[in-house]
């Protein structure tokens, strides 16, 4: 997978482009506000690495523990995944590759998202 998108150089370019797109997205800034740029860059690398199924470079905390209490929504998860898909397509990745990335990320959704999108009315109105 890593090689399918063009290897290390292409992945580095993808991280840079993806990073700029995410920083400009007002719907995502709430989560990354106050996170310093080094940690943010690390986050983007971890995200892309997970998406490509590359070697996990982050040790320590599990994804579930790392995201506990952040209140990440499905919409935010989708927005991040969408930025990556657009970035990869812009860099010339094939649709097959982008689909594979989407399903790889989706497999991790349950560990990250803890505020599922509300559908319908409040189940217990006061
Ligand atoms: C598959 C998807 C994702 C992966 C692989 C991933 C990976 C990571 C990793 C490795 C950490 C650092 C853990 C640590 O420092 O011990 C982290 C923290 C964090 N993640 Fe994610 N993440 C994903 C999705 C998301 C999403 C969708 C959001 C929000 C929109 C998000 C927001 C954050 C924030 C705010 C932190 C804490 C940053 C800090 O203070 O250092 N993550 N994530």
Topology of helices and strands:
Blueprint: H1 7-23, H2 26-32, H3 37-52, H4 63-67, H5 74-90, H6 95-106, H7 109-112
Structural commentary:
It is a single chain. The chain has a single domain (7-112), classed as Globins (Globin-like, Orthogonal Bundle), CATH 1.10.490. 16% of the residues are buried. The protein is built from 7 helices and no strands. The protein has 126 residues and is mainly α. Residues 28, 31-32, 35, 39, 43, 46-47, 50, 58, 60-61, 63, 66-67, 70, 72, 76-77, 80, 105, 108, 112 line the site of protoporphyrin IX containing FE. Belongs to the truncated hemoglobin family. Group I subfamily. It comes from Luethyella okanaganae. Pfam families: Bac_globin.
Key traits:
126 residues, globular, 62% helix, mainly alpha, binds protoporphyrin IX containing FE
């Amino acid at each position: 997978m890593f090689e399918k998108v063009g290897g290390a150089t292409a992945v580095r370019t993808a991280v840079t482009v993806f990073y700029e797109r995410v920083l400009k997205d007002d719907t995502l800034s709430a989560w990354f506000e106050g996170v310093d740029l080094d940690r943010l860059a690390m986050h983007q690398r971890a995200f892309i690495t997970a998406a490509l199924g590359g070697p996990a470079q982050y040790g320590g905390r599990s994804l579930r523990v790392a995201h506990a209490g952040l209140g990440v929504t499905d919409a935010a998860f989708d927005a991040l995944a969408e930025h990556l898909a657009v970035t990869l397509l812009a860099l010339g990745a094939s649709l097959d590759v982008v689909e594979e990335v989407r399903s790889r990320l989706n497999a991790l959704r349950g560990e990250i998202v803890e505020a599922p999108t509300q559908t319908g009315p409040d189940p217990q109105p006061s």
